[in-house]
């Protein structure tokens, strides 16, 4: 039974040749694309039609056309050929990328800390290459898409190895131009300055003000954003002042674009963790990046 079933199926080669012949509507052009002669393509199509017991093409001296059955068969074959090509390319790429680390990074950390520092990372010629994908939410390693990740979480992710990189501690920052326009420069001026709320740190402004001894100062919220990165961009644009991690605004403060309004910090009880599966085939690359992350955060 297995042998008869095998004999009833066309070869992969014949399906690829058919798909190209149907695409070009020319045995000659299909052959040129595949590195075959016109007669070889024609013979493959004759054999395929004999196997299927149906005419796939009409032929004359100048051109070939798909029959209705040929058009139907092409629609069925096309995704098979496409998926086969995709699987082949993916495996070739996987083999070529054994020294490359596929890294998923929490979006705010990715945009505000990692990407600006990657040029410094690559100054080390021995540094493994890193493919960076920003994400929001949890990361799963089960599908093999990522070798490691940097996540924003209240505790180390389960079922993987991890390093705590950075506790998320916030302080108030505002755009220099906005503060100059409002003639404000201290946290006590908050009633005259619009404030940007962070949904991830619910109640952060009220807690922060209480912590620094200013619990009765009213807050005029101009908006609420879901990510630190969005609050950062909004603050830079002059929409209002925001509670941001100092590690994320070092460059803007140095450039004079952002001003810190109070020295105290406030923890939202979350941290950034660098994590990876326990049995990681690229362990050397994972460790190299982890060491660089730790050293860079200590330096800053």
TrEMBL record:
Domain HTH lysR-type: 10-67
Keywords: DNA-binding, Transcription, Transcription regulation
Lineage: superkingdom: Bacteria
Gene Ontology molecular-function annotations: DNA binding; DNA-binding transcription factor activity
Alphabetized Pfam families for the sequence: HTH_1, LysR_substrate
InterPro entries tied to this protein: LysR-type_TF_proteobact-type, LysR_HTH_N, LysR_subst-bd, WH-like_DNA-bd_sf, WH_DNA-bd_sf
Entry annotated with the keyword Transcription regulation: yes
Similarity section: Belongs to the LysR transcriptional regulatory family.
PANTHER family membership: HTH-TYPE TRANSCRIPTIONAL ACTIVATOR TTDR-RELATED (PTHR30537:SF5), HTH-TYPE TRANSCRIPTIONAL REGULATOR (PTHR30537)
Protein's name in the database: LysR family transcriptional regulator
Origin species: Acidovorax cavernicola
Taxonomic path: Bacteria, Pseudomonadati, Pseudomonadota, Betaproteobacteria, Burkholderiales
């Amino acid at each position: 039974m297995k042998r008869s079933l095998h004999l009833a199926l066309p070869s992969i080669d014949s399906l690829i040749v058919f798909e190209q012949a149907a695409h070009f509507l020319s045995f000659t052009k299909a052959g040129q694309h595949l590195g075959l002669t016109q007669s070889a393509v024609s013979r493959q199509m004759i054999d395929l039609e004999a196997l299927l017991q149906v005419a796939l093409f009409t032929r004359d001296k100048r051109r070939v056309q798909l029959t209705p059955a040929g058009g139907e068969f092409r629609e069925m074959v096309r995704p098979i050929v496409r998926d086969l090509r995709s699987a082949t390319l993916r495996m070739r790429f996987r083999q070529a990328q054994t020294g490359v680390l596929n890294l998923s990074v929490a979006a705010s950390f990715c945009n505000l800390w990692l990407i600006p520092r990657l040029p410094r990372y690559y100054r080390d010629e021995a540094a493994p290459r890193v493919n960076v994908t920003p994400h929001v939410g949890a990361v799963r390693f089960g599908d093999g898409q990522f070798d490691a990740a940097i996540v924003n979480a209240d505790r180390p992710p389960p079922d993987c190895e991890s390093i705590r990189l950075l506790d998320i501690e916030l302080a108030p920052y505002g755009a220099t131009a906005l503060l100059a326009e409002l003639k404000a420069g201290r946290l006590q001026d908050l009633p005259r300055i619009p404030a940007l709320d962070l949904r991830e740190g619910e109640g952060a402004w009220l807690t922060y003000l209480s912590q620094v001894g200013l619990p009765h100062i009213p807050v005029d919220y101009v908006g609420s954003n879901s990510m630190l990165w969005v609050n950062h961009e909004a603050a830079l644009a002059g929409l209002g002042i925001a509670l941001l991690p100092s590690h994320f605004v070092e460059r803007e403060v140095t450039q004079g674009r952002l001003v810190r309004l109070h020295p105290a910090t406030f923890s939202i009880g979350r941290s950034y963790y660098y994590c990876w599966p326990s049995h990681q085939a690229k362990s050397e690359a994972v460790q190299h990046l982890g060491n660089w992350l730790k050293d860079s955060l200590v330096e800053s």
